[in-house]
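Q: Predict the bound structure with uridine-5'-diphosphate.
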Amino acid sequence: MSGNILPTVEILGIPFSLLNTQETVEYWKQLIRSGEPHHVITANPEAVMMALKDPKLHRIFLQAAQITPDGIGAVWASRFYGTPLRERVTGADTTPLLLQAAEREGWSVFLLGASPESNALAVQHVQTRYPNLRVAGHHGYFGDQVKAVLEQIRTFAPEILLVGLGMPKQEYFIAEHLQDLKVPLAIGIGGVIDVWSGKVKRAPKWCQEWKVEWLYRLAKDPSRWRRQLALPQFALRVLADTRFGQKWKD
Ligand code: UDP
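A: Predicted complex:
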């Protein structure tokens, strides 16, 4: 199954999947059952801005089986394009449902990314939560030892590879090695491994409901302000693209 049969809305030329969280997990199950390798990207506005500035990353986005709206920015923007997204589809919300399904179906999961301590704690956490799941991991600071890491993944032969190396590193890694690893479903999940390890707290429910999770992350880690400048840039470009009838010029 390929990405181009999914219903999508193009935001600044990036095709976001219109599936909601539940439908996305169902779609992932189909991808896994197909046995062919697939790359899924969970993209927030920052990721979109990165892809627009980086042709190689842009190509990777366009080749992905699915791009999910990981953040309220894409949901907001979709209204301007006349095809509203129903909700955010985040790595943090979808992956627990995926792990549940994996445990039931007997699919194994490999977690790649985060510090050695965080990765080990996350593997432990997942194993405790899903006792019948076959799960393993490797930290994300492997430098030039990529061959050894690939060998470990190949030997483990997971159906699901969750890669948390941050954007764009995780997408480059997946795009470069997916065919060789032959993993049916590889997803870039950013900081989710740190959340599972307990090292990083997800924003409280009220922040998620009030759509200000980004503000919580900024307050917790003010060094992110530079990265979050991508948010107003994204908003301006969407308005220029849809309201003022002209393409943005860099
Ligand atoms: N990371 C990693 N290897 C690297 C760089 C980053 O494993 O070389 C991990 C980092 O420890 C963290 C995650 O990648 O767990 C990035 O998290 P962040 O919340 O920044 O993700 P993003 O917002 O970029 O999706």
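A: The beta strands are 8-11, 14-17, 39-43, 66-69, 109-113, 135-138, 160-164, 185-188.
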